[in-house]
Specification:
CATH superfamily of the largest domain: Winged helix-like DNA-binding domain superfamily/Winged helix DNA-binding domain
Helix content: 55-70%
Largest sheet: 3 strands, antiparallel
Radius of gyration: 18 Å
CATH topology of the largest domain: Arc Repressor Mutant, subunit A
Number of helices: 7
Number of domains: 2
Shape: elongated
CATH class of the largest domain: Mainly Alpha
């Protein structure tokens, strides 16, 4: 299973767990995750979500003194997949319609508009 397959199957709750990994930028133990997510879920729920992510190939394990977990897909890989998926599912593949919807629904700052123009013109 590649990163795109893993990304496609991540639920909203599992995404919150993945965001903790990406924010930590380091491998975490199950206990680390339980502490980070204690305001949202109890320990058994975190363990279930972690087990599901491992089964999907989105999280990998490493045995040290205890098991450490780390993301098998990067935040960038997930963002790229999610953007392509949204574009296809909601906008029928039309990037123009997606951008038009964002412009209609948002008020961009001048700085954001400059950055978007630079992106559209191939500038970094």
């Amino acid at each position: 299973m590649d990163g795109q397959d893993s990304a496609a199957r991540i639920s909203d709750s599992e995404l919150l767990v993945m965001q903790e990994f990406w924010a930590a930028e380091a491998a975490l133990t199950a206990n680390d995750l339980r502490q980070r997510l204690s305001n949202r879920w109890d320990g058994s729920t975190v363990k279930t979500l972690l087990r599901r992510l491992c089964a999907k190939g989105a999280v990998a394990t490493e045995k040290r003194e205890v098991y450490y977990f780390h993301p098998a897909i990067s935040k960038k890989e997930y963002e790229d997949f999610a953007a392509r998926d949204l574009l296809q599912r909601v906008y029928g593949g039309s990037a123009r319609n997606l951008v038009a919807s964002l412009v209609d629904a948002s008020s961009f700052s001048e700085e954001e508009l400059r950055e978007l123009r630079a992106l559209l013109h191939g500038e970094k």
